[in-house]
Amino acid sequence: MDSLKEIGRQARLIRKYFVLAILFVGIETLFEVLIPLLMSDIIDQGILNKDMRIFATRGIGMIACAVLSLLTGMLYARYAAKASTKLGQLVRDKQFERIQKFTFTNLDHFETSGIITRLTSDVTVVQNAVTSGLRPLARGPVMLVLGLVMSFIINAKLAFVFFIVSPVLALIMVWIVKKVAPQYPLMQHALDLINSVVQENLTAIRTVKAFVRKKYEIEQFDRINEQVARITQTTFHYALFNTPAFQFCMYMTIVVLMLIGSNLILAGQLEVGQLTGILSYVLQILNSFVMLSNVFLLLIRSMASIGRIGQILAEPLQSASPDPVREMKDPTIRFEHVSFKYAPDARKNVLSDICMTIDPGSSVGILGGTGSGKTTLVSLIPRLYDVSQGRLTIGNVKVEDYDLRFLRDKVAVVLQNNVLFSGTILDNLRWGDPDASLGEIEKACRIACVDEFMDRLSNGLETELGQGGVNVSGGQKQRLCIARALLKKPKILIFDDSTSAVDTKTDAKIREGLDTLTGMTKIIIAQRIQSVEHCDQIIVLNDGMIEASGTHAQLMRDSAVYREIYETQKRGGQDNG
Fold first, then answer.
1. CA 67/CA 76 separation, integer angstroms
2. In angstroms, rounded to a whole number, what is the distance separating the alpha carbons of residues 169 and 242?
3. pLDDT by residue (tens digit) across 86-101?
4. What domains appear along the chain, each with residue ranges and CATH number?
5. What is the secondary structure of 413-476 as a DSSP string?
6. pTM (two decimals)
């Protein structure tokens, strides 16, 4: 994947940590391999010949090897930790940076829980593969080769036993890999499901409690949790079989070597110290097999996670113009036979043949039933979605030709689902303009009627908001989001049913405040005709098509659908006093 290759190229900055870690673990292994050879000399030449000089020199050599092995092992641990943490940091940064560039179309391809798992659990799996796998990956081959060489130096006949054991170990490893490999992607997907259930439950915790659905939610979680446990149990059942199988082969090899070696000692063809040395190398060689098998299992799991991370990094982004426009003198918006559908293979368009012009500085109201395409229509203007057919221009420039950051900086959207972030009210408002003065903030708050409830908050603008703004009401949240959008000083302001949670009196005051803003195109999606009847133009959508358009007076005269909506709302208002 190109994105993973890009990470590989950027990982060159931390390549020195990988190189140093491998270098030090190689040196550590070399010192460990020398210890059995020195021990063999102590037994055969020092103890049996009662040569204290050999005993002392070889003993000092063993101590020196052990100390140097310890020091190089500590250096390995330091650089392996740096390599792992910096790699994890790089992968998370690249994923998060990519997600920030996603459009709604891109986000529709992933579950929110799946994105979170890719940023957390999957990256941790890759880090663990580096931390736990780098040492045996570098150490195993070195120990295997040097152990075999030393065994042949001591006694070639006994060393041939390894050529019988090795194919058996290889077959065991292949069988385990075939069983485990398909399980790891399933295990990570199951974690996605758990995250999804937890996230949904916590987001809707008030609804759960209001409907007394605690038992149902617990059952839902238990069902998913049981599924995760079942997949994990199957995976680890085979993965953990690796160690006992290899240990069985190790002990059987030791028994065979003891039988052959004892016969060779009795025949005078082998020294006791040589057999001891070979047995030490047996443990090292077979341990290297165990380490390499564990590395393969780590790599298999990490490859499943790398594939999932690669899905985020390889997700195609919106096409960017080679020479993007960064100027908007004329904010005239034109929809020229625009059609849209969420998926290319969808059978029906969400919007069909939309043709209309929105003049600069005008106010446009959009009405329509649920599912008529109102939100989708305005989402095309800041390129939250791209048009499927037709042409959408602002100032005779296609929206695809604008620099995306510039375009979205000129368009402010107050979405139907209002979102506030953890922090103070002032922090949230300054999302609109980080450099806004206190006077500008107060003006925006006045237009959005935020000042009406600000004095009731404990610390005014410095009041801390909980996650998602849980400590303010729905209407207060909407007004804060309107003030935040006004601070952007956009050329185009879009309200997506953004006053649905405020009373009609406050709605009217917000409209009056917006009327004082000149030179700004205002697009207002609403359910109440009262919220848009003052607009220069009103668009009535029905099933993704423009049913009628005009001023309030024109629509009352010419549109039966608009008159019906008006009469229904007027009668409902009278019935409720």
1. 14
2. 10
3. 888 888 888 898 888 8
4. 91-313 (1.20.1560.10), 333-575 (3.40.50.300)
5. EE-SS----SEEHHHHHTTT-TT--HHHHHHHHHHTTTHHHHTTSTTGGGPEE-TTSTTS-HHH
6. 0.67
